[in-house]
Amino acid sequence: MYSAVQPSGNLTIGNYAGAVRNWLAMQNEYDCFFAIADMHAITVRQEPAELRRRTVELAATYLACGLDPEACVLYVQSHVPQHAELCWVLNTCTYVGEASRMTQFKDKSQKHAENINMGLMDYPVLMAADILLYRADYVPVGADQKQHVELARDIALRFNNRYGETFRVPEPLIKRDGASIRSLQDPAKKMSKSDENPNAAVFLTDDRDTVMRKFKRAVTDSDNCVRASAEKPGVTNLLNIYAAFAGCTVEEAERAFEGKGYGEFKLAVGETVADVLSPIQAEQKRLLADKKFLADALQKGAERAYKVARKTLDKVYRKVGFYRGE
Ligand code: TRP
């Protein structure tokens, strides 16, 4: 199993409930590789010192959430040179037409019109290299990345047809919609770490007061009845969050708040979320104070990743006809 997250911006409780927590559940069942995709991050302008800081912080967050560096391979993408090397080969199996049709490329080209660089267009090919290097069967991603995983499949099949069986063809694992956490200010939108409205997202780093304040201001409706329904997207979102963090079903949450008003309900959602976050924050703080431990853990991760990646790349270089001295 392979997945990665870019070290851009803080993780939200949506990333936690939708991605990180699923990884925790999978780390003992699958051979898991989790990368911090710093090479993807520089396809949009980054402040170097900030990128470096976020990379370590993200590693500390994962470990604080319970990712076990013995059970899975946690590493930084740029520590393993084969990503860039395989990307180059895969570029020759990718058509400009298909890369330029990717929805995210089109969106980002609009958003960063002053910086439509080659890396932005090559982004999904680098992502295909990530996945194919580790012979992943499954790639858990958000729905917005499904198209990229499908491109990785197409590239793998194309390479295999051209050069003979080399890559395993990966499958996206898209998280169910129920787990999707929406913006607290506009439940029509996904909760996003880059939302302009500071009250839209709750971050894993938010302290208790901030968490409480954001939930207090969350958008609901006027009928003061805690029930999930399509007509009540704000309340439904809060119920989903409560259920995800209290470890119960939405029905159980509805029953718990029957006859209670929104004020009391929002307070309970905030407290439940803050209770889950505080031990994670304490552990993240402890880890960040131990720079040596973090650096060692990431180096060990990179070494384990390198072993697998090198094998795959050797095979690829042989297949395409690069002279290997024999
Ligand atoms: N592009 C992914 C995202 O922004 C991150 C990513 C990079 C990734 N490489 C990957 C996800 C490989 C899955 C597999 O969410």
Task: Describe this protein's structure.
By secondary structure, the chain is mainly alpha-helical. It folds into two domains: 2-174 and 291-320, Rossmann fold, CATH 3.40.50.620; 208-285, Orthogonal Bundle (Tyrosyl-Transfer RNA Synthetase). The protein contains 13 helices and five strands. It has helices spanning 13-26, 38-41, 48-65, 82-91, 96-100, 103-111, 118-133, 146-163, 208-216, 233-246, 250-256, 262-288, 291-320, and strands spanning 2-5, 33-36, 73-76, 138-141, 171-174. The strands form two sheets. It has a three-stranded parallel beta sheet. Helix 8 links the parallel strand 4 (138-141) and strand 5 (171-174). The model has no long low-confidence stretch (mean pLDDT 95). Bound molecules: tryptophan.
Report strand %.
Answer: 5-15%
Number of helices: 13
Outline the biggest β-sheet.
3 strands, parallel
Instruction: Spell out which ligands are present.
Output: tryptophan
The overall pLDDT average reads 95
Rg calculated over all Cα atoms: 21 Å
- Which descriptor suits the 3D outline? globular
Order of helical and strand elements: EHEHHEHHHHEHEHHHHH
Helix % is 55-70%
Q: Count of DSSP E strands?
A: 5
CATH class of the largest domain: Alpha Beta
